[in-house]
């Protein structure tokens, strides 16, 4: 990528372009020195510009490019095609008799002095606009005093052939004999040339045979058109016959030998082609042309024989008997097409400096476009400079490449101004230029401008590619410009362009986030009418949007629909929809309706019922959960363990403790209660602040020699500490160690947190020592609690870490507590601890930074505190309310 070398506060320029091209952009500038083939940055104009300290405004760049672009203007030719396109000013649309008459009159009023040269110039200027060229050709042929020639016919044939409009060309030839202007042109000559160029050499040969039978012959020009067509279409036997006729009639020329060299190349007889060239050299060079040399060079390159092609070029250069500009151009083109850009640039610059070689406009454009694709922007800039120095008038390809260049170089303001001024120099932006401009404007935050450019491109018949469309759509959605986004989608669909799933998902998601879920639903409806399946995440966004709007009925409908489209909802999505339904009127009716719809889609199974039991439980509707549970039993499905756990959790979440206990006891009467159900009961009772009931169940588990899960112990420790039942906590920890379990980080952190709040936990621990052995596994934890309970914690940091590691694994929460505790009295040690945890690979979070900042403020170290506060803000973290009091 091009390094940004000159950045000012006013953002004068955002790339080396602003410096490298200083002299080029200013109309009064002097020329740069020639391109350094080594491409060394130290010798580039860019470095010299830095030394001089040149600065440019974007307007200077725009003015210089406008001046250059206007140099291509041919007002007469532009006016001719303006008339041909618009029917004399009548606008675009289907041509009518009146519009044709209007165009004829407008062309006549121009007072053109028709000649072969003028017609050829007009056809060459507008060769991409086939219809306009045909109109002009027709008009010219109907003018008194002018008759089309072999050259003008050949020119229009080539235009039709390149545009692959063969049917139109054949129709043209079939109607040829009916036209007024045929009497001055040799009839068969024209037909033979036409069919030959149209890729119908067999018809051309038939006509040739017919005219020979009638005693009529082709002229030299037509003979060579036919010979070339036979080579192009691989009619090699006929080539020899026609070539012999050319020799017999004395029409032999450089063109003849160039075509015969091509004939050998087309048959992969490259040795014969080379021998033919050297025979011409031996004969004094008569018949030898640069076209023949370029044909062989091209054939060698196409077969990846670049070294041999280069040697051939050098040999003919040393001979100096034939111009090689065309061969040089072919060599550069083939190097570029093969990806050998450095070789092409080096050759080009060497030939320019040593031989004064200047490529034609086509070669420049090809090099520039390929370099743009490779993001070699400085090389592009150098070539643009050289084009201007060589007084090469740019065409539309050059101008479009320049627009793309400015976009890639980060100078979107220059590209936009040139685009806005396009009428001044007749620029019609290409689809690539439109894409680059729209993409860059979106990246620059100029979404409205990007949208305007897109509308203009549509009016000109272009529509952006999928990537560009997605970029603009994302930008419009991100900025909440939904009306423009809807218009964009409408235009796309109107042109049979189907935006990608991700674009629709982005649009619908943005509408849902903006609380415009109804609009999102309308877009979704359009997709359905187009038989396009929305993505799974589009359904998720819509459902969540309607849940947020308390429209559970539509959310439920979408839940069923997404399954019909082949998507599988998650348990979380079921839960969200059911919770929303339970907040509506008649929740039981809504709940059962959705359940019945769901069951009608699937064979009844426990998984479906589980989703509904879970959803009702989270909605605090245990009676609905129980209804779903009973329906499962009535349908003949035996509830599995997961169903019973969900049912139990639904009672506990709603704090229906008696119902939960009754359900639990009923289950225990029917069968042996397993560990998972007991764990669920203990954890659920703890979460509703019923620790003693939980302890009873834990005791029953222990009596039955069943070990509770670590989660049971963690929740019990947490709730008992919250209720300051520290004596029970100490006994519980002993029980944990007795069953061979280790204290988890969660439990250890809870104990240390409460020891920091008061010494009650430590005193409870001391009282338990009367019945404890000091060598017990919990004794070390008691010492650690005592250290945290002490007003001044004087232990060494490493000793504390080691002590904690002997009791439970440290995590970031542990370090945060330790940091908070140390910052109360030992700020330097707290800073040391912060560095240690970073070195160990922990990523500090909000609480880590807050503990450090709060401690620094509290100890009067304000400057340090503010530095760390800025670090917090850079990471997007906010201090706590207690720390904000110091700010």
UniProtKB/TrEMBL annotation:
Keywords: Repeat. PPR repeats lie at residues 184-218, 289-323, 360-394, 395-429, 430-464, 465-499, 535-569, 605-639, 674-708, 845-879. It holds the Pfam family PPR_2. It comes from the Eukaryota. The keyword Repeat applies. InterPro entries: PPR_rpt (IPR002885), TPR-like_helical_dom_sf (IPR011990). NCBIfam families: PPR (TIGR00756). PANTHER family: OS03G0856100 PROTEIN, PENTACOTRIPEPTIDE-REPEAT REGION OF PRORP DOMAIN-CONTAINING PROTEIN. Belongs to the PPR family. P subfamily. This is Pentatricopeptide repeat-containing protein. It comes from Actinidia chinensis var. chinensis (Chinese soft-hair kiwi).
